[in-house]
Amino acid sequence: MTEVIKILLIEDDEDDYFLTSDYLERCESTQFELTWVTDSDAALEALKERSFDLCLLDFLLGAENALDVLSILKANQFNVPVVILTGQSDAMVDEMVMRAGAADYLQKSEIESPRFMRTIRYALVRRDIENERIERNKVEQKNKAKDKFLAHLGHELRTPLTSILGYTELLIDDARNSPFQQELSIIHSNGKHLLSLLNDLLDMSRIMADKLELNVKRVNLASFLTDIHSLMQLNAKDKGLSLNVVAKTKMPEFIQTDPTRLRQILLNLITNAVKFTDSGTITLTIEVETSDTENQAEQAHSVLRFTVDDTGIGMAPDKLENIFHPFEQIEDVMRTNHGGAGLGLAICKELVCKLDGDISVTSRMGEGSSFSFYINPGDISAQSLEELTLGQLSVVEPANLNLQLTGKVLIVDDLREIRRLTGHLVSQSKADISYAENGVKALEAVLQADEQNAPFNLVLMDIHMPVMNGIEALHAIRRHGKNLPVIAVTAASRKGLKESLIREGFNDVIGKPIDRFALASLLSLYLPADNPVTFSNVEAQVSGMPTTKPFAPEAGLPRHHDSNVDIPDIMKAHSPSSPIQQTNEIKGSVVEADAPKTSKKKILVVEDDEDAAELLQLFLTHLGCDVVKSLCGNDALEAINEHRFDHVLMDLTLPDYDGYELAKMLKSQQSDCKLTIVSGHQADKNTMLSIGIDSSLLKPVTKDDLESVII
Question: Rounded to two decimals, what is the model's pTM?
Answer without folding.
Answer: 0.51
